[in-house]
């Protein structure tokens, strides 16, 4: 009895198309077909035709040799009725006699063609190596496409060639399923866990489009409404009163908006004034953050006992509990949850959680450490926990250290430490702990000997052992350390420091030379920068000789002669000096001097270091070496003479000037310096002698100008004019002599002659803006405003885009009370010279309203970047607003940026006279004297006035402060 299978669980018949019996038309897609493959084989075709004939109740066709198959339980009656629609292939498409006849004819034709091919093959004898090309080829039956016999046979050459080409093509272009066949077979070994661990495929659809839309969204900008500015102004404030004049809230508070704008502008000003090389401390939009201050603030917040919000604790508790439940062996998760409960004040819960963590994670060191820490209120329990932890993890050094820390006495600590060393004899930390708990020096030495024998590769133990030993024994220990650790540079450094402590500084150089050779042989030579850092450490710890030896032996390492070694060494010296390591910088410069003896740059750098951070004797000794090495260097001679004069060694300074003139006869600068020395010493006759000698040996316009200036300062105005006239005959284009001549006539109240001198000068030296300015001012004092404008216009034509002439034209209109014309001229001036700090400062201070000064200052700083004159202007703005701290900050920035700008010192000292202390004012005066400023409108007007001849700088500073308005 046959059991009928469930219809839904039965496999679908071949070539089944759903709905075909109801008239539906089936279709096939690429997914149904799959990749391209060969058609059914001959046996499959025979079986399919026979099966279809059996289902239709017809005889099997003779094509392909198909035979009829009959089932034993088949009913013959069901096939007699043509209208009986049963079976899957009952579609009315029946085979008749004509179809059978056609199949038979095709079959006969195929058989006849096969006979002809076989007869042709048998007629060809073998071998056929003489045929070229052979028309036939010998094939094995396993590769033949026509037969399945066990004998060799012959194929026509065409078929052989086609088959060869087809095999070659299939080999070069394998099918997709063949390429990944090995990978498909390998998929059978993939486990279910590995399948589950495969990551999800990300959504890459429209990725580029989404990224482009995000970029466009970031570029969008919106105008900030007044309400946001008003809220920024009121942020952090607490109102305790209610104003009755507020109305219904529809009125805009423009005062608050202005204050908010002012605060935002101030922050932007501070951010724009950042000087390269300095750390900005401005908050707000500044991107410079002080990491130390930030961390300090965090520590103060934690130490102040600030409690976290309850909502944050609950949220964190849920997350951490989920983490430990998901992975019960997550040791750090238990630690984090324990500390969270401790922060929440639930110490007992925290202890219970960490105990649970230790049970589930017995190999987690952090869990045991946290368990010991949180149970330190009960030392007995903490010791039990530590013992259990060590039993589970006997190699954990941190657990042993925690157990040692629980002991109260030195003996107990040593006992635990020895037990720890039994399990971890290679631990340097445990050896150090045991040695630190030992007080007897001899016992300490014995422990060190045992330690270095057990851990021979520890530099720290060897060095510490040498430090506690006698000198002779220490040297032996360091020798043994070098043999044990041939790649250690620290041992060599310690050996040099040991010799320095013994007072044998000369041996330090030999030790470091040997160190370089030994380390280079072992390929363990550190970088040159690392050696410099080690030298700075030695200097900090007082080992100056060792630091010098390190620099001398290693500063040239890995630098070829073709490299720019001079620039590299100068930069290294500057970096060390900036870090406060002056001995290291001095050693680097000394090494540079030994290699570049004829370089004045290196000598000047060494002299500058000695002048700032050395002694007078060392500076003068260095300068003597410098002038002997570079006798033709004018700058070195002048610096040497100046330093001698500054140390009140006048005779030596004069001697140096004489030596310089012997080496550089007729040098103009040396004559000028000698004249300056004699003038400072009030030896005017000697000064005249040097000037007259210079006129004979090296007559220049500068020598004549200095001579005329000296006579003017001494009150000999007629002689000064004669000297100026004599000089103009030889140098008619020397604009400074024209200017001096006109100023002398002005001081003699001969305005007509002064105007003529200036006019001649403008024609002889048209490229000198100063002469046009002096001429216009003289004409303005005479009341000829139109002529003054004309003179400035001529100067602007001869010297286009000159800020000084443009500024004078603006000031001329401003002094004439023509503000509109001054504004127009300033606009033109800023178009011609948009990066002039001189013009921007004038515009901000005198041509802008009070409310617009800060915005203009910000605009100016962005255009001009770093300009001392602009910084002084901004400082004056803050000073006017009584913001003294900010004003001080900006004044400091100005004098740091350009110490030669005298007006910066003038305004800063004037500010300190009103708001500073005596100590601060004295400090500013000392720094001003050291800087010796020479530029600045107010400063030059006072310093170059003949009335202030030979007055000290501090007095000139105070006089300039009185003149500043």
TrEMBL record:
Which residue windows does the record flag with biased composition (Basic and acidic residues)?
A: 39-50
> Principal localization?
nucleus
Its transmembrane ranges are none
Cellular component, GO annotation? catalytic step 2 spliceosome; U4/U6 x U5 tri-snRNP complex
Query: Where is the region Disordered?
Result: 14-86
Q: Which domain of life is it from?
A: Eukaryota
Know the name of this protein?
PRP1 splicing factor, N-terminal-domain-containing protein
**Compartments reported by the entry:** Nucleus
Extract the Gene3D superfamilies matched here.
Tetratricopeptide repeat domain
Its lineage reads: Eukaryota, Fungi, Dikarya, Ascomycota, Pezizomycotina
Q: Which is a GO BP term held by this UniProt record?
A: spliceosomal tri-snRNP complex assembly
| Subunit organization | Associated with the spliceosome.
- Where are TPR repeat segments found? 868-901
Database matches in SUPFAM superfamilies: TPR-like
Q: Which Pfam families match?
A: HAT_PRP39_C, PRP1_N
The PRP1 splicing factor N-terminal domain extends over 12-121, 158-207
Residue ranges under compositional bias (Acidic residues)?
71-84
Q: Which UniProt keywords apply?
A: mRNA processing, mRNA splicing, Nucleus, Repeat, TPR repeat
